[in-house]
Design brief:
By secondary structure, the protein is mostly helical. The chain is 66% helix and 0% strand. 0% of the residues are buried. The protein has helices spanning 13-22, 28-44, 48-76. It has three helices and no strands. The chain is globular. The protein has one domain.
Length: 85
Amino acid sequence: MNPCAYPALSEPPEMIGQIFRLVREATDDEKYWTALTIMAGVLLKKDEFTRERMLAGLPAALREAFEKLQSLYQELSPNAPERLQ
């Protein structure tokens, strides 16, 4: 498994919906810091080599996740505001 890959968005969209329902009331800043804290927790459990590979791949992984999430929004809600598409 490529530790830099972001497979979560290849899972059924229901999983993504569950995640967003859990943080529905959170502000964007709270969501951001929650995501960073979760990622830091994941990195703490990795060996140094894997951690460095994951950190190096993070910009591309975030970009890929953003594009997949944007695509899901378009599929699930074609009439959503432009900022969500």
